Amino acid sequence: MKPNVIMLRLGELTLKGKNRSRFEKVVFEQVKKAVLPYPKLTFVLEFGRIYIHLNEEPYEAIQACLKKVLGLASFSPVFTAPLELAAIQATSLAAMEGLEDEQAEFKVTVRRVNKSFLYDSQEMNKLVGGYVLKAMPTLKVNVNHPKVELKVELREKLAFIYSQNVKGMGGFPYGTNGKAMLMLSGGIDSPVAGFLALRQGLKLEAIHFHSYPFTSERSQQKVKELAGKLCGYAGEIKLHMVPLTSIQTRIHEVYREDLFITLLRRAMFRISEKLAEANGAMAIVTGESLGQVASQTLGSMNVIGRAIQLPIIQPLITTGKQEIIGIAETIDTFSISIQPYEDCCTLFMPPHPSTNPSLRIVESIEKSMVWLDAEVDEAVRLTEQLWIGAEDKQQFASLF
Ligand code: ATP
Ligand code: MG
């Protein structure tokens, strides 16, 4: 027997009132987008839950899509049965038969919504529990701390029966906490930072700085692939490709090798802030992790961050490399990130970058760089925008 309905539970159950219904609406839209390739599905939104009627569409493939929907706490494959005792018993057994642990402790919970049903919930607990135990004698009953809960909902027309609880992505529904710009390099960290920001309900546009022709087309391709992976959670992402070569070359001519990275990164943030303002984003998200490299010491980050007014969100700031790699593997960006490529920041990279630059000195050097504002504006002007769709183009094709 196959499940014919999927019951979806939303996350952040503590949310109340207006926010809650707004969030429900967003999750519902995202769910529909995620399962777009399956046209026979039908949907019912009811008391904060979404029911998907499969209508013969494949459960396994659809559950893989659902696992990426942000804000979805969990879901259960549901077996339906007509409101007859024998059918409910047989279906309950079918719902338990896929169980991995045949010696699991379980209990049956029956909820009788349809009060005209012949047996009340207590009686049904026994009738269903007894039937399942007889067919699966290795199971044990534990009413207080069961490992598996077999739920039987006697609804108006049908019984809904389920025992499995599949964990969803959780977090906030897509975009419900506002919009930010993600500085997306081709490295390991920034895609992970982007994923965490998406999961926290931020809508993202991505910014990538390239030093073409010193950096290759291939390195830009890699960034598009990484953005594509993030689209698995976001649906689509606008990617801003910023040419950095000119400003980078001019900063290199300043002849303060130790401050090259500091000055360059301040320029990158200035450009990002302008792009954020032009696109209605209220923060910049980056993949810094404290102490990882010279530009990620507190001293450096302080001086770099002061170049702009917008908040800089660094989801990975206290996360260690191994943990970051773990997340990168889960979201399938790691193998792309470790492909060799030239980063814009490796061009003119000094051997001894400062780890504790002086804000006063940096600001006075910038005052002497009279061309700086014009270069920043020019980089913004020459920025190219492209839309990245989902990894599975087919899946989101109709949305473009
Ligand atoms: P990542 O693995 O994300 O590249 P990293 O450890 O290599 O990070 P840095 O190169 O110092 O660290 O970059 C710090 C952050 O600055 C990155 O996480 C990213 O958010 C941003 N960044 C760096 N290079 C670029 C780039 N070429 N385009 C866009 N953002 C960048
Ligand atoms: Mg990097």
From TrEMBL:
Keyword Nucleotide-binding part of the UniProt annotation: yes
One Pfam assignment: THUMP
Annotated compartments: Cytoplasm
Residue span(s) of domain THUMP: 60-165
SUPFAM superfamilies on file: Adenine nucleotide alpha hydrolases-like, THUMP domain-like
Residues binding ATP, per UniProt: 183-184, 208-209, 265, 287, 296
This protein's pathway: Cofactor biosynthesis; thiamine diphosphate biosynthesis
TM regions (residue ranges): none
Substrates-to-products reaction catalysed: [ThiS sulfur-carrier protein]-C-terminal Gly-Gly-AMP + S-sulfanyl-L-cysteinyl-[cysteine desulfurase] + AH2 = [ThiS sulfur-carrier protein]-C-terminal-Gly-aminoethanethioate + L-cysteinyl-[cysteine desulfurase] + A + AMP + 2 H(+); [ThiI sulfur-carrier protein]-S-sulfanyl-L-cysteine + a uridine in tRNA + 2 reduced [2Fe-2S]-[ferredoxin] + ATP + H(+) = [ThiI sulfur-carrier protein]-L-cysteine + a 4-thiouridine in tRNA + 2 oxidized [2Fe-2S]-[ferredoxin] + AMP + diphosphate
EC number(s) per entry: 2.8.1.4
Source superkingdom: Bacteria
Enzyme class: transferase
Claim: Transmembrane is one of the keywords in the record: no
Sorted UniProt keywords: ATP-binding, Cytoplasm, Nucleotide-binding, RNA-binding, Thiamine biosynthesis, Transferase, tRNA-binding
InterPro entries linked to this entry: Rossmann-like_a/b/a_fold (IPR014729), ThiI_AANH (IPR020536), ThiI_fer (IPR054173), ThiI_N (IPR049961), THUMP_dom (IPR004114), THUMP_ThiI (IPR049962), tRNA_STrfase (IPR003720), tRNA_sulfurtransferase_ThiI (IPR050102)
Family statement drawn from the similarity comment of this UniProt entry: Belongs to the ThiI family.
Protein task: Catalyzes the ATP-dependent transfer of a sulfur to tRNA to produce 4-thiouridine in position 8 of tRNAs, which functions as a near-UV photosensor. Also catalyzes the transfer of sulfur to the sulfur carrier protein ThiS, forming ThiS-thiocarboxylate. This is a step in the synthesis of thiazole, in the thiamine biosynthesis pathway. The sulfur is donated as persulfide by IscS.
UniProt xrefs under HAMAP family: ThiI
Name of this protein: Probable tRNA sulfurtransferase
Organism expressing this protein natively: Paenibacillus agricola
Taxonomic path: Bacteria, Bacillati, Bacillota, Bacilli, Bacillales
